[in-house]
Design brief:
- The chain is mostly helical.
- It folds into three domains: about 1-195, Growth Hormone, Chain: A (Up-down Bundle), CATH 1.20.1250.20; about 195-250, no CATH class; about 255-469, Growth Hormone, Chain: A (Up-down Bundle), CATH 1.20.1250.20.
- The chain is built from 21 helices and no strands.
Length: about 475
């Protein structure tokens, strides 16, 4: 297969599947009430439909790199796309909650293989000097999908039925499957032994953490039970860390964290998402509870960040080339935090233009932030460790998304307290305090990026070397 042809079409293949997965993970939330009526259950009982997907995703991501190395990236990726598409059809045809949960588990397995393996193939197909541009293109669906999901889901449910939400994936999946079989290179890696014990420890710890974050605030957990489960999850992960340093072929080599750019990117991204990750939860609350907009109007107001994210793609590479990763990440993280705090200026009398400007600015900052962090992670990773690095980064990113949403819900619940959510003024003031808190947390996360050096990531951005700071 011609190398230039692969470079031309491969980012489209990976971006298509990433958009499909990201859209699917958020579009479902707006359909829960109508699904509950159709399946003759309570809306709360459908929480298992969401958690089953999240947990299967968390459990299977860790072995995605090993699967690609062992069976080839094209075979694993195409099989994952096929599984995700078939599972989408099964979801749309489900007759009861049990069938829907089973189909969602299969969807999670497919998604767990699609995303890390797609990213891994990009890493192996492009030299580092071209990698930033390729990943900049691929990451865009991850930013747009969660913003468009609620709006699209609401329109589909209003006009058609909840089942069509899942059928949307079918033509996209079939197209991605055909493209992947034609343009996806079939890379193999070193045939290392699968660390089954390590996989069990890490997978169980990540799954338990993901489950706790997903159901946070939905069930009346007492403090003792929640603390015990959290300690168990961290204990499993600690046990994996102990084992990983003593086995010759660990599931993840923790020595990757000795690479400064990988460590700062993964840890900095994790902490940054604690502040930023709550926005998809808090903004609809502000628009609907505080400002009195309808669900579809709220969905439309979530679209300016998507437009901002697209706009940043035209200038982000040039910014990184001129300023370097260190300066961009420090300054941009602070700007993200300030912009989150500025949502506290949105009252009932605020002009729509202010909401649109803040949303677009947030999209610009988010796009630059995640493109920078995601590409920096692989700046100094050796090709032989790329599959392991991709799986590890994807696993921790999945957990950080759950932590971010939980953090947003926790902060909002703290300020709302026992107040009536039907009181718009109380809701607005409480959410304003939540935005200020998350903005401050985001600004503090910029401290992680101060540990970078001026030349870190220069091989990715093609920046002229300068004296280290």
């Amino acid at each position: 297969m011609n190398s230039s042809t692969v470079k031309r079409y491969l980012p489209w293949v990976v971006a298509t599947t990433m958009f499909m997965e990201q859209l699917d993970s958020t579009i479902l939330n707006t359909a829960v009430p109508s699904m509950a009526v159709s399946l003759h259950v309570t809306p709360l009982s459908l929480k298992s439909v969401v958690t089953s997907y999240i947990i299967s995703l968390a459990v299977c991501i860790p072995i995605s790199g090993w699967m690609a190395d062992r069976f080839g990236s094209r075979r694993v990726f195409a099989s994952a796309v096929a599984a995700f598409t078939v599972a989408s059809i099964a979801c749309g045809l489900a007759l009861n909650v049990h069938m829907l949960v089973a189909a969602r588990i299969l969807q999670g397995v497919g998604a767990a293989m699609m995303l890390p393996v797609g990213r891994l193939t990009i890493l192996r197909a492009f030299p580092k000097a071209e990698l930033l541009r390729a990943m900049n293109f691929v990451i865009m669906p991850a930013l747009i999908g969660p913003l468009l999901g609620p709006a699209i889901g609401g329109l589909i449910v209003d006009w058609l039925s909840w089942r069509e939400i899942f059928f949307v994936n079918v033509p996209v999946g079939l197209g991605a499957l055909l493209l992947s079989r034609r343009y996806m290179p079939n890379h193999h890696g070193s045939a290392r032994r699968l660390d089954i014990v390590g996989m069990a420890l890490f997978g169980a710890g990540i799954a338990l953490l993901s489950w706790l974050m997903e159901i946070f605030g939905e069930h009346p957990f007492d403090l003792l039970s929640a603390t015990a489960l959290a300690l168990l999850a961290f204990g499993l992960l600690a046990a994996y860390g102990w084992r990983a340093r003593r086995t010759p072929d660990p599931l993840f080599d923790l020595a990757l964290f000795e690479i400064r750019t990988f460590r700062v990117s993964v840890i900095g991204g994790f902490i940054t998402r604690l502040g930023v990750g709550g926005l998809p939860f808090l903004l609809p609350l502000l628009f609907q509870l505080g400002l009195g907009f309808s669900a579809w109007q709220s969905g439309l107001l979530m679209m300016p960040p998507a437009l901002g994210a697209i706009g940043m793609k035209w200038i982000s590479i040039d910014l990184l080339r001129r300023l370097g990763y260190r300066q961009v990440l420090i300054v941009n993280t602070v700007l993200m935090g300030v912009n989150i705090g500025l949502f506290s200026l949105v009252f009932q009398s605020a002009p729509i233009a202010l909401i649109v400007i803040l949303g677009m600015t947030q999209g610009l900052c988010n796009s630059l932030q995640f493109s920078s962090m995601n590409s920096l992670a692989y700046a100094d990773v050796e090709p032989g460790n790329s599959s392991m690095a991709s799986s590890l980064a994807s696993s921790l990113q999945q957990v950080s998304i759950g932590f971010g949403l939980a953090c947003g819900s926790l902060v909002a619940a703290w300020y709302l307290g026992d107040s009536s959510q039907s009181d718009r003024w109380v809701a607005v003031v409480s959410l304003h305090h939540a935005f200020l808190t998350l903005g401050a947390l985001t600004i503090l996360s910029s401290l992680v990026f101060w540990t970078l050096r001026a030349n870190d990531g220069a091989v990715m951005s093609m920046r002229t070397r300068v004296d280290d700071q």
